[in-house]
Automatic annotation (TrEMBL):
Membrane topology value: Multi-pass membrane protein
Full protein name: Na+/galactose cotransporter
Subcellular location: Membrane
InterPro entries the UniProt entry points to: Na/Glc_symporter_sf (IPR038377), Na/solute_symporter (IPR001734)
Database matches in PROSITE patterns: NA_SOLUT_SYMP_3 (PS50283)
Cleaved signal peptide residues: none
């Protein structure tokens, strides 16, 4: 697969394009060097000293997610499935982001924990903590491989280097600025990368829409396939033929389990909000991030839909006829750039793609080094060492994770549509964690034993459903269940959630709960309400109030869902 990628199309960049890209890389490394000067403790390295304003952490919050999944994965989904892909944003992201800001961030930030697994340790003890820390670490290494693979693909398309060489070069660039500046370097680069990505993809979308005749032109050209222009029931997206069960898969599997599991318990995202300078800022970070998140589909999914219309390779791939030139749906936005953008604009667009993949990989690596250093190494290997020792461990973990990601990039290269692979991973790792977390946060009776047994049972259920589906595991899948693609991932996530809840309830009835005094700040009903808000929150203007901002965001996302139903 890697060799095949070397033999496909090239992007025809000129000296001006390369100059823009080179300047961007200089700025990225420079930010890492400057951020290094601010590091005097492990808290500075792993959580930016909890000193960043809400607008910075909010943009970093969304930019950390604006990686390979958003750009290549969602444009691939747009090309393959059309308007139904909007569900990943307006049902599968924004509501959970608002919930995180309003309900869950007070528990994370107020408890003073440094990671989500640390919160699990305080609530459930070392059993659930170890399971969560290990599963999270594995997930980040696998997802970092996705971002690294696509980052290397861009280098390969530009320079024609073999993909394995491109992988190593791309890894070194990301490694350098994270190792130098820790989370601060990652966050400040993510803020820069957000603006670069928007500046790169907005002109591409405008040019592509003009080329195809606007939204009406898209509707005219895909009219024979109405599923492409309708978000419900999304049977093509889910691979579930029955409209009712397809809707259930989207609402429950994606909109509830996968979405809330990712946005509310995934430390990659939560880490950005935890770097805020106050509880109010931490709550606003995901809420502010939800507003640009609503409109990203217009510069990611729509270009993918247009690529399926005007790019011969993608059009042929979609119809199953003609020469595809070795292209996959993952190449949709690259091919659109190749055919529509003049030199100069091409350089900006390529820099935007590079920015998105580096943002995604940096988020994975920075979250991994925090969990590895604090939750695994400090907790189970070397306790009670000085602060600088753990900062050093974090830097070593960063190097090791980057090297491992070069290997996990191979797995990503085997998928024509990376969303299938990514949603499978989320079903394994995020869905059971969300079930355990949400049950433990609202049910004080839940026991420590139930915490880790529920996680293990939920993960096993997701793996089993994926293995029995048609293609979630590629050739290793049995096809016993008539589920394929992202529908299999939704079903696996739903199974993980339900099994985790059931096992947790059963085990709780058979084991002894903790003393309620130990659960203050960890269980909603046992936490004083005044500790969940800033003392000065009542004096904040409406545009700084987390609940008011969340209400506005909810209204907007409902309107968008109605407009594109």
């Amino acid at each position: 697969m890697l060799r095949a990628a070397d033999e496909t199309f090239r992007l025809d960049a000129d000296f001006f394009d390369y100059t823009i890209i080179a300047l961007y890389f200089v700025v990225v490394i420079g930010i890492g060097v400057l951020a290094r000067r601010q590091i005097s403790s492990s808290l500075d390295f792993f959580l930016s000293g909890r000193s960043l304003p809400a607008w910075v952490t909010g943009l970093a919050f969304i930019s950390a997610n604006l990686g390979a999944v958003e750009i290549m994965g969602m444009s691939a989904n747009g090309a393959q499935f059309g308007v139904a892909t909007f569900h990943y944003f307006w049902i599968g992201a924004v509501p959970a982001m608002l919930f995180l800001g309003v309900v869950m961030m007070p528990f994370y930030y107020g408890s003073g924990v440094r990671s989500v697994p640390e919160f699990m340790r305080r609530r459930f003890g070392t059993g659930a903590h170890l399971v969560n820390a290990l599963s999270f670490s594995i997930a980040q290494l696998l997802i970092a491989g996705i971002n690294l693979y696509l980052l290397a693909t861009i280098v390969n398309r530009l320079l024609g280097w073999p993909l394995w060489v491109s992988l190593i070069v791309a890894a070194i660039v990301v490694l350098s600025y994270i190792t130098l500046g820790g989370l601060s370097a990652a966050i400040y680069n993510e803020v820069l990368q957000f603006f670069v990505i928007v500046a790169a993809l907005t002109p591409l979308t405008v040019i592509a829409l003009h080329k195809v005749g606007g939204w009406q032109g898209i509707k005219d050209k895909v009219q024979p396939n109405n599923e492409q222009l309708s978000s419900w029931p999304g049977t093509d997206l889910t691979g579930i033929a029955d409209p009712f069960w397809s809707t259930v898969g989207i609402v429950f599997g994606l909109g509830f389990v996968l979405s809330f599991g990712y946005w509310t318990t995934n430390f990659v995202e939560v880490q950005r909000a935890m770097a805020s300078d106050s509880l109010s800022s931490a709550r606003r970070a995901p809420i502010l991030g939800a507003f640009p998140k609503m409109f990203i589909p217009f510069i990611v999914i729509i270009p993918g839909m247009i690529a399926a219309i005007i790019i011969p390779e993608i059009s042929n791939l979609k119809s199953g006829q003609g020469d595809t030139g070795g292209a996959t749906y993952n190449d949709a936005i690259l091919l659109l750039m190749r055919d529509l953008l003049p030199n100069g604009m091409l350089g900006i667009a390529i820099a935007g793609l590079l920015a998105s993949f580096m943002a995604g990989m940096a988020a994975n690596i920075s979250a991994f080094n925090t969990v590895f250093s604090y939750d695994l190494w400090q907790q189970y290997v070397k306790k009670d060492r000085n602060d600088s020792y753990y900062t050093g461990v974090g830097r070593i973990a960063t190097v090791a994770a980057t090297v491992i990601a070069i290997g996990t990039a191979w797995f990503a290269s085997n998928y024509d549509n990376l969303m299938n692979y990514l949603q499978t991973l989320f079903g394994f790792f995020n869905a059971p964690l969300f079930a355990t977390f949400i049950l433990g946060m609202f049910w004080k009776r839940m026991t420590a034993t139930a915490g880790w047994t529920g996680l293990v049972a939920g993960t096993a259920a997701a793996v089993t459903v994926a293995f029995l589906s048609e293609d979630a595991f590629g050739s290793a899948s049995t096809g016993t269940l008539e589920l394929s693609g992202q529908g299999a991932s939704f079903a696996a996530a739903g199974a993980a959630f339900i099994v985790d809840i059931l096992v947790s309830i059963i085990v709780t009835t058979m084991t002894r709960p903790r003393d309620e005094k130990e659960l203050k700040g960890l269980v909603y009903s046992l936490t004083p309400k005044e500790s969940l808000v800033d003392p000065d929150s009542a004096a904040l203007p409406w545009y700084q109030s987390p609940t008011k901002l969340a209400g506005i965001g909810l209204v907007l996302v409902i309107i968008l869902n109605l407009l594109f139903r």
